[in-house]
Structures are given as structure tokens and as C-alpha cells.
Amino acid sequence: MGRYLSTLRIFWIASLTAELEYQANFLIELVATAGNLVGSIFVLSLFYGRGQSLGGWSWEGAMVVLGVYTLLEGVTSTLLQPNLSTIVAHVRTGSLDFVLLKPIDSQFWLSARTVSPWGLPGIAMGAGLIGYAAWKAGATPAPLTLLAAALMLVASLLILYSLWFVLAASSIWFVKIWNATEVLRSVLVAGRFPVSAFPAGLRAFFTFIVPVAFLTTVPAEAILGRASGPWLLAGGAVAIASVVLSRWFWQFALRFYTSASS
Amino acid sequence: MPGSRLTPAPSGKALDRVWLAPKPVRMAIVRAQGLGKTYRVADKQPGLAGTLRHFVNRRERTIEAVRDVSFSIEPGEFVGFLGANGAGKTTTLKMLTGLIHPTSGTVEVAGCLPHRRQAAFLGQITLVMGQKQQLIWDLPPLDSLRVNAAVYGIPPAESRRRIAELAEMLELGDELRRPVRKLSLGQRMKAELLAALLHRPAVLFLDEPTLGLDVNAQARVRSFLADYNRRFGATVLLTSHYMADITALCPRVLLIHEGRLFYDGGLETLTQRLAPCREVRLELHEPMGADAFASYGEVEAIEGREVRLLIPRERLTEQVGRLLADLAVVDLSVSDPPIEDIIGRLFHQGALA
Q: Which chain A residues touch B86 with a CB distance below 8 Å?
């Protein structure tokens, strides 16, 4: 465990030094994230402008969902995208061989190798929006609410990670998988709105097939102090199942890996 | 084994064993037994029609990349691994390093089964591939080295000491602080070697480590490898397309041909086996026809007064004596065809006599 922590420290120091050479990126990313957020809030305001509501959610509640979504987007740009997009390149160039020859868990290496600071504005804005909207909605920061919220956020991150990882790992068979992760990204855009805003069929799809509901709606409920026991349990169970699935899937994929070229 | 002969033997059979065991008892560090690997590949005709036909009716073909390969290598040996492109060298190396599972047979490296990829095994081996790199492109090699030190659990002080030692052996200095993309191919290869050797592996698998390097850089990598092998007693299995690498470094070679182990032994013996004749060049006083030489050896070429003959090694002195006695010879020289030519021709023809 100690070796993993020290390795993680070295990984991240190395990637941060590399990334910080491009300072202009930070400004661009900041403007892009802020623009995105303003756009999303505008779209949301169109729904609420005429006194309507989205799936029974208040304006503030919907803003919490949007905040969770923005936070997840930030984490995606910070950790998931920079790491998991390289699996494809590793497979194509055959440098996955080097990863597999290191005496360290290969899934850990591939998932935590780099960190990109450019998603941090998204994380900060998401957290800010969650805090502001929850306060406006009258949520109280009771210890139990905070605990439930933290657990559901962690569960949502684990589910998101597993989805990404499984998709990226399938590049072992289909080297040109990169477009598929773009599809995943577009499906996850649905997480900007509470899941109850969708028609019943889509709602089922977003709960059981691609668990978008557990990514944003369930954490938002927890933050607003409305989470019910069964949903919390389900969130935890889905998270654990996803991580176990991703680990199993990786071992399965590796058995097929015979590495590119010679 | 000085003591063993004095041991009283209870039976004649055991006595035999005591007396007949002159071989030094050393554990092989690499052992392959009946190793085989078959691949299934898509059998697809070129062109659109072939693609469509393949799409409708997928046909697969089994390719035996490696067949029944057995050998063992003792600690500290420097072994060359020869073979044409596609002969099965890389596939064998990948089975030895645990990157792919053998279809048949067993492998044991450093006392472990490679395909399990246990930490104890991975910490003892390294793989260097000339056409693949592990260094991070945009960062100086030192950053990649720090990553490797952490992954292999080498304490910072120890890793600094090792980096300094290896950098000195490799004649690397400031290059370690420059981004990898700004290094020349030779510098990059040396940095790759440093990264691959930081954890002091006992077994080195080197796949074309001098690929694409200029002659000077090749020579430097070569002398480093010899030096490393001597200094740390590491076992090395090296593949290379440059025969100079093999002749300079490897007292023993494994020759693999069409997936089978064709030869295992000294380089000298291989030359003799593949080239049983020596080449005799004659300069004559006046031109002569080809039939005049038929009784001396095989005529390779005749150009005016210059004649090249191939004469079997065991009859060389006798035939040269006769040549000198019978013909008006101005000049005569005997040479071995260069090993590069022999093996090059072998791979080029793709067939073994």
C-alpha cells in the first residue's frame, strides 16, 4: 500500500510538471467550463421560466443535479480522460507490454498514471454550485446528510470510473474504441437533468442499463437530505458491483492481449 | 565436487552416479521445454471483394509461430537469439517475459512461471525493445526514472546511486535532464536501457536494442551490454539483426527458423556447420577454363585471370598444395565467408540446407 501511495505521488508530480508548461490551457479551460455551465443553467431556466418544473424537482434541486454533473465532468477531465484515453495508444503501439512488466497492478497504473489540472475549474465550480443551490433549497448540513452525500458522491465517481474503464479496456479487441467513449460522454450528458424528468422508458434505461441515475440524481437527493435507505443501499451496491466488474473485465481482456505487432 | 568421490557408495548403481557426475551443478535461470505458440489469424483476401467475402464468411487459419522449442540458459550467460523476421523470436521472448501464454510446453524464468506475472518475477527481469519505448515523450528521462524507482520500490538514495552508476557506464549526463523528444535516437536508446536496468534485473531480454542506431551508437550500446553482463553477472538473451552485435557479444547462439530451434551452441561451430567450405581466391598467370578446376573444388566465379573456388575445410591444405604444384599461380588467398553473409544468405533464401 505504501508503495502505491509513493508511486501515485511520483506519477502526479511528473504529470503536473509536464502539464503546467502550458499555462494558457488553464485560462482556456476556465473560460470553456464557465461557458458550459452558464449554457446549462440557461437551458435549465428555459424549463422553469414558464412556471413548469422538471420531473417534480424544484429549480434549486435541479441546480444541485447540475452541480453534481459539473463536478463529475471536472473529475473526468482531471483523471478519467487523460488516463483512460492512453490505453488505446498503449495497445496500438504495444507499450502496454511495459506496463504489464512492472511489478504493480496494471489497472492501477493505467487509471492513475497522470493527472491533468485542467479539470479543476470544473470541480471547483461544481462544488460551488452544489453548495449554493443546496443552501438556497434549504438543505441543512446535518452530519447524517453530509455522510450520505459524501458516500453517494464517492459511489457515483466509482460508477463513472468503471464505465469509462470497461469501455477503454475493450480497445484490446477493438483498437479504434475512442469514438465509443465519445458516445458514452454524450449519454452521460443526460445526467445534467434529474432522471425523473425523462419518460419512463428512458428512466429505466438510465437507472438499470447505463446507471446515469446513480451518477447525479441519487447524490443530489442525498445532498438535499431526501435520500431514502433503499436508494442509498442501491447506490453503494451498484458502485461496488461496477468496480468488481471493471477489475474482472480487465483480467479477462488481458487474457486476449497478445500485443500489437512484433 | 572434491568430496563426492570419497563418499562410500552403497551400491554399484549409486557409485556410477557419483563418478559420472562431472558437470558443475548450476541451476538454469531460463528454461524452456517443448515451448509452442499457435495463433489464429483471419484469412482474408486483399481488395474489396476479399473484404466482403471475409465479412460474410470469416475463415481463420492457425499459424504455428513457435514449435517445440527447448533450451536452458545458465546465470551470467550471454546468448544471441537469431532468426529471420517472423521466425518466432519475438513470440518466444514474449512467452519468456510472460506477456503471452504458451500454447504448449513450459517456461521457467528465475524460478517463476512468467505468465503469472508475480511481483517476485517481474522484479528480476527486464525487456528492452528497440522499436518500443517506455520513457515519457515530453519529459526528461529522469522523471521516468523516478517513476520506475517508485514502482520497483527502490529508495530515493539508492536509486540516485544506481542512476549515477549506470549513467556513467552509458556515458549519459545532461541528456537525462532534457525532454526525451529532444534526444537523438542513440541517446534515447541509452536512456531506455537505464530505465530498464534501474531495478537491477537478473535476466535481460533485449529485442533489437540497436535497431536503427548508427555504427558508433551501436558500438557503445554493445560495449555497455558486455560491461553490464560482466559487472553484475546478469543473464542476457539478445536478438539483433546486426550480426556484429552477435559476434561481439554472444559466445552462444540460438538459431530459430520457422518456429523451430535449429541450432543451439557456439558461434564458431555454427559457422562451420553452415559454411563447410572455405573460399580460395587465385590469381593465375593466364586465363583458364572452368573445367580445369573441377578436380580441386567447386568453381564459384571466374573473371579473366581471377578464379574463386570453394573447397571443403578438411581437404583444404591438400587441394591448395595441388593447386600450387599444378598451376601457374601468381597469388592465392584463403578466407572464411563472413558470418554476416552466411546467415544473411540463410535468412534471405528462407531455407536451410
A: 262
CB contacts, 8 Å: B133 with chain A: 95
Q: Supply the pLDDT for residue B310.
A: 84
Quote the number of domains for chain B. 2
Contact B99 A101 (CB under 8 A): yes
On the CB side of B10, CA atoms within 13 Å amount to 0
How many CB atoms neighbour CB B345 within 10 A?
12
Q: How close does chain B come to A182, measured CA to CA in Å?
A: 26
CATH of the domain at B186: 3.40.50.300
Distance from CA of B115 to the nearest CA of A (A): 10
Angle at Cα B49 formed by Cα B48 and Cα B54, nearest 5°? 95
Is residue A258's pLDDT more than 70?
A: no
A102 close to B (CB below 8 A):
yes
Last residue of a domain, one of B225, B254, B271: B271
Domain at B309, CATH number? 3.30.70
Residues on chain A touching B148 (C-beta within 8 angstroms): 102
Distance from CA of A93 to the nearest CA of B (A): 7
* B298 assigned to some structural domain: yes
Q: Shortest Cα distance from B157 to chain A (angstroms)?
A: 15
Q: How far apart are CA A222 and CA A147, in angstroms?
A: 9
The domain segmentation of chain A, as residue ranges, is 2-256
> Which chain A residues contact residue B98 at CB under 8 A?
100-101
Please answer yes or no on whether B147 and A10 come within 8 Å at the CB atom.
yes
- Chain B hits for A10, CB-CB cut-off 8 Å, are 146-147, 149-150
pLDDT along chain B (353 residues), means of 10: 38 42 66 90 75 76 89 95 84 91 92 90 93 86 92 94 95 92 92 95 94 89 94 93 85 89 86 78 86 84 86 86 88 77 62 48
Size of interface A-B (CB pairs under 8 A): 77
Render pLDDT for A32-77 as a digit per residue (tens, 0 to 9): 888 988 998 888 888 887 777 788 888 899 999 999 999 999 999 9
* CB contact (8 A) between residue B117 and residue A11: no
- B40 and B141 co-located in one domain: yes
- Which of B97, B131, B147 lies at the smallest CB-CB distance from A101? B97
3-state secondary structure of B266: strand
To the nearest whole Å, the CA of B324 is away from the closest chain A CA by: 53
Q: Which pLDDT value is given to residue B21?
A: 44
Q: What is the DSSP string of B273-285?
A: HH--EEEEEEEES
CA dist., res. A112 & res. A3, Å (int):
14
- Report the complex ipTM: 0.79
Helix (H, G, I), strand (E, B) or coil at B111: coil
Judge whether B34 and B68 are in contact, CB under 8 Å. yes
Share above pLDDT 70 across residues of chain A, in percent, rounded to a whole number: 96
Residue type for A224, please?
L
| C-alpha grid cell, residue A28 | 482556456
